[in-house]
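Shipment paperwork, digital attachment
Item: protein structure file
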Amino acid sequence: MNINDLTIGQVKEIQALLGQSQAPESDFFSKWIGKYVIARSYNEGVLFGKVLSCNESGYEMESARRLYYHKPLDTSLSWYEGVAQSGLAHGCRVSSEQHKVVIERYSFTECSQAAIDNISNYETHGQ
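Attachment content:
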């Protein structure tokens, strides 16, 4: 048998025999647990916080702060991705920290340590 001639099905059978099954889909989501992110979803808008759990239908976050108005500290960057890299510029509006559970489609952008420090300590604004 030539290893280069194996089908994907045969490789999976060999992996199963060796106890090396493919990583479950939950591993895709578990890599976000414990990370500080900017989360964006349709109804919740843009949030910053630490991911406690997540799956294909939603996420749970602690120390969540809604970014009502945001612009990056580094003016050469843009949108919330720029905020995730550099933090918030002066004049932004953010909520106090809350525990959030969001059940809807979403995206995460991982934050740099500079952004985590900046946003975590940013002044809270009321409505």
